[in-house]
Structures are given as structure tokens and as C-alpha cells.
């Protein structure tokens, strides 16, 4: 069935109506809003103009290579990259991290069973890289008060199989900068690469240096840092699909480059995981970065930072709620006391028009409520604080999400390795998440579901959520 332009526009608008808002500062995770309509407009224009170009062959589309080299250069200057540094533009932070792990692994062919040392707060993308690339993750607990990586424990975890050591600037979960200096020094002493994941902080922290005298060092200016990732589609406020992976030298980058002439077609040459890749996101990023400029990025960063600090101060006056760790950047993590839970507060905030992200417990780290502040959020700081106080009061009045003992027992008895469709369907039914024909039905309020998942081991949580994704991602029935 064909559709005319108006039908397509109406259908897209109807589908989009169910999504979270990407502008206005009310979605405090996933999206980043500069509040600058002109930046959005030039980004969309460039995205459309270069959407059909292909970054596979830089000789066919030299404009893309020129823009990529320019973006890499700007990023490098932000993070004190040394002379001779090299980098690539990727599709996002996860691809940047995958390539950093790949480069570290393949630089050490002498290590048969490679490992990487991670603080428990390192982004889950490192676990994806570990799984895909068969690099064993060695997890090191963070300081329970500051939520920062423990340098002594990290150093002690390095052995002769370690190919990479990781630190965050800042960590996504708690918004704190790890002590990169001693971690990188320990890695360098052992002859091991050190990657700093600055995907979320790389384009905002440098613009806060002048106003944040106590900012922990984390860039290439720290001896021993060999690679660093930073996303442009976060605090550079570009359209989605652009990150940068930087290496201290071209030699360090070489082991994630790929070439194959072992077939009768064109010789495949890749700098990233992708072969064909639209030039749209690169062009959009180039346009937005040059439109906003360094001075305005500093202003936007300070706005987002001030909003973060303002809400952290406001939280001190909200009964039942506290800051999990003093924020170093523009991310804030909140914890509750026994009178309520973060999952109910999340539901209450959504009813008030705010999306805040519940994060589940891991090891000794409690469940938290995550808020990402962008420049567009700053104007609403007071309203967020008021609504958060009201949402927490409502959550305290309701009490922590109740979990039927029999449902917890049923879920806990599941073996993640042997979960089948019938057992999963039965669990959905017991949890009230199955419709009349057994299809998955998500409730409007997710607190009971999230509280159940929070009570389960991470391995079981993963399997159950993959089951949810599997049920959601099914072909649309023919009309």
C-alpha cells in the first residue's frame, strides 16, 4: 500500500506523539537540548543535505573526510591531545568504546586470554565489548561514599593478562570523575593502555575548567592516558549518531583499522566498525559545532552545571531523598531512604511531565534516580525541584513498591541459562504483564516491575529484560 505525503506526515506525527519530548528540557536522560533553535535548524539542514553520502570511501566523498578531520582536531584540542594524536568519528559512545577495547586487545597478540580492569561504575558498553571481543572484564568496587574508582584496588587488579585499564570522566551512573592520574600511572607502570571514557563529559568538562578549579584531571594531559572517547551528540548538542575516539598516537589507533583484499571486489578499508555510513550525522555535527562555537559552548556548559548544582542543593531539603555523590559535571544521582523508592518517584515525575531515569542496584551500590541536565533544563530548575519534592512526598505516602512474595519467589527460582518461552509467559502473567492472547502489556506505572527487577540478580535481570525486548521487537501484522 502506498501513502501520499500528507498521509505519511500524519502517520509519523501520530507515532511521534507517543515518544518522550526531545526539546524543552523535560527528558532528563537520552536526549540533550541546547535550547538553541538555530543550532537545531542548521543541524537538520546539514543532516538532510548529506544523508545520501557515504563515508565508506573518503576518496569518493572527500567532504566527509575533511569534516571528520576537522571534528577530530577540535575534539583533540579540547582534551589536551599531544602532537601526533589520531582519531576517528564513530556512530556513538558504544562504538568508540568497542574500538578502544579492540585496539588494546589486538595490540597484544601475545596475551591469549586478555583482560581489562574496570571500576564497577564503568559504562555497560565495556561489558558489551568484553562479550563481543572476548576480553574478560575484571570489576573493581568503587569508593562507597564518593562513588569514584579506587586507584589502589585498580592497580592491584592489573596482571600480565591485562590489556586495558578504564576510568570515567564522569561516570554515567553517578556523575563523578574517577581519579585518572593514579589509575593511568598504574597502567603505564605495567605497560598497559589506559582509556578514559569521557563520552558524556568530553564536550562539557573542558568548558567548565575556568569556573571549576577543583576539577580532577582526566584528559591527555594526564601521563599514561592512551585513548579517550567523547560524544558530540551529547553536550556538543549535535543530532544523534556522532562520537569521537581519540588515541595519543596514530600507532595506537592502527590496531582497530581494518583492511581486506581477500575477495574479488573492492578492497575494504575501515577505520571504524561500520563500512557504509551516512555522511549526514558527520555533516550535522560539523555544522552545529561551528555554529555554536567555543564561547557559547562554555555558556551552555555553565548553565547546565548550575542547574545540576541548584537541584543538588534543593534535594537537601526534600525528606526521604539525598544526593548519592557530589556531582562533578552535569549528571545527578539521587537515593532514597526506607520511606520510599526511586522507582515510584520516577513514575510520579513522569505524571508531572518529567522523564527521570531509575537505575537499579549493583553489588553494594543502591538503586538511584538519574538526571541528566542540558542547557535547556536550566530555565526549569525551580520547577524541577518543586515537582521532585511533590513526587517524593507522594512516593513516601504510598510507601515502597509492594512485591508479592510469591512473585519474587517465582522469579528468583528461574535459571537464566534455561529460561524458555513458556516459563517467561507464565512470569508475565503472574506479574500482570500479559494480555488476553499472551502478548506483552506494559503498565503505565513501572514501579512494581522495576522493583521486582531490582530484587533479582543482574544475570537474571538481563535475561528477563532481553525477553521483554524480544516480545516488543516483533513484526507488525499485515493490514
From TrEMBL:
> Keyword annotations for this protein?
Aminotransferase, Lyase, Pyridoxal phosphate, Transferase
Q: What is this protein called?
A: Aspartate aminotransferase family protein
The cofactors required by this protein are: pyridoxal 5'-phosphate
Q: Which family does it belong to?
A: Belongs to the group II decarboxylase family. Sphingosine-1-phosphate lyase subfamily.
> Molecular function terms in GO for this entry?
transaminase activity
Gene3D superfamilies (alphabetical): 6.10.140.2150, Aspartate Aminotransferase, domain 1, Type I PLP-dependent aspartate aminotransferase-like (Major domain)
Q: Does the keyword Repeat apply?
A: no
Q: Which InterPro entries match?
A: GrpII_AminoAcid_Decarb, PyrdxlP-dep_de-COase, PyrdxlP-dep_Trfase, PyrdxlP-dep_Trfase_major, PyrdxlP-dep_Trfase_small
Amino acid at each position: 500500500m502506498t501513502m501520499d505525503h500528507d498521509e505519511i506526515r500524519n502517520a509519523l506525527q501520530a507515532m511521534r506523539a507517543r515518544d518522550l519530548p526531545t526539546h524543552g528540557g523535560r527528558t532528563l536522560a537520552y536526549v540533550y537540548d541546547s535550547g538553541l533553535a538555530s543550532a537545531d535548524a542548521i543541524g537538520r539542514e546539514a543532516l538532510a543535505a548529506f544523508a545520501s553520502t557515504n563515508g565508506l570511501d573518503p576518496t569518493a566523498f572527500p567532504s566527509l573526510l575533511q569534516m571528520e578531520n576537522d571534528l577530530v582536531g577540535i575534539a583533540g584540542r579540547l582534551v589536551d591531545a599531544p602532537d601526533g594524536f589520531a582519531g576517528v568519528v564513530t556512530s556513538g559512545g558504544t562504538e568508540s568504546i568497542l574500538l578502544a577495547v579492540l585496539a588494546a586487545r589486538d595490540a597484544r597478540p601475545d596475551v591469549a586470554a586478555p583482560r581489562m580492569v574496570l571500576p564497577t561504575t564503568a559504562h555497560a558498553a565495556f561489558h558489551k565489548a568484553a562479550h563481543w571481543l572476548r576480553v574478560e572484564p575484571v570489576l573493581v568496587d568503587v569508593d562507597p561514599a564518593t562513588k569514584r574508582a579506587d586507584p589502589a584496588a585498580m592497580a592491584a587488579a592489573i596482571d600480565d593478562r591485562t590489556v586495558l585499564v578504564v576510568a570515567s570522566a564522569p561516570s554515567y551512573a553517578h556523575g563523578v570523575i574517577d581519579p585518572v592520574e593514579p589509575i593511568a600511572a598504574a597502567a603505564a607502570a605495567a605497560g598497559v593502555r589506559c582509556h578514559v571514557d569521557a563520552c558524556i563529559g568530553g564536550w562539557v568538562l573542558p568548558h567548565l575548567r575556568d569556573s571549576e578549579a577543583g576539577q580532577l584531571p582526566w584528559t591527555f594531559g594526564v601521563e599514561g592516558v592512551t585513548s579517550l572517547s567523547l560524544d558530540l551528540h551529547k553536550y556538543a548538542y549535535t543530532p544523534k549518531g556522532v562520537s569521537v575516539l581519540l588515541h595519543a598516537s596514530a600507532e595506537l589507533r592502527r590496531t582497530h583499522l581494518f583492511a581486506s583484499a581477500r575477495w574479488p571486489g573492492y578492497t575494504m578499508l575501515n577505520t571504524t566498525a561500520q563500512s557504509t555510513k551516512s555522511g549526514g550525522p558527520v555533516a550535522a555535527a560539523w555544522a552545529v559545532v561551528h555554529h555554536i562555537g567555543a564561547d557559547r559552548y562554555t555558556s551552555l556548559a555553565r548553565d547546565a552545571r548550575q542547574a545540576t548544582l541548584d537541584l543538588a542543593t534543593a534535594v537537601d531539603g526534600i525528606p526521604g531523598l539525598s544526593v548519592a555523590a557530589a556531582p562533578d559535571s552535569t549528571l545527578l544521582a539521587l537515593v532514597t531512604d526506607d520511606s520510599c523508592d526511586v522507582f515510584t518517584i520516577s513514575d510520579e515525575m513522569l505524571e508531572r511531565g518529567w522523564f527521570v531515569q531509575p537505575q537499579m542496584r549493583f553489588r553494594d551500590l543502591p538503586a538511584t534516580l538519574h538526571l541528566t541536565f542540558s542547557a535547556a533544563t536550566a530555565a526549569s530548575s525551580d520547577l524541577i525541584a518543586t515537582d521532585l519534592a511533590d513526587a517524593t512526598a507522594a512516593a513516601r505516602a504510598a510507601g515502597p513498591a509492594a512485591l508479592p512474595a510469591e512473585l519474587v519467589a517465582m522469579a528468583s527460582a528461574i535459571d537464566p541459562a534455561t529460561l524458555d518461552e513458556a516459563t517467561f509467559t507464565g512470569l508475565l502473567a503472574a506479574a500482570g504483564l500479559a494480555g488476553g492472547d499472551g502478548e506483552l502489556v506494559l503498565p503505565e506505572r513501572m514501579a512494581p516491575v522495576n522493583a521486582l527487577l531490582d530484587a533479582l540478580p543482574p544475570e537474571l535481570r538481563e535475561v528477563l529484560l532481553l525477553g521483554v525486548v524480544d516480545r516488543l521487537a516483533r513484526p507488525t501484522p499485515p493490514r
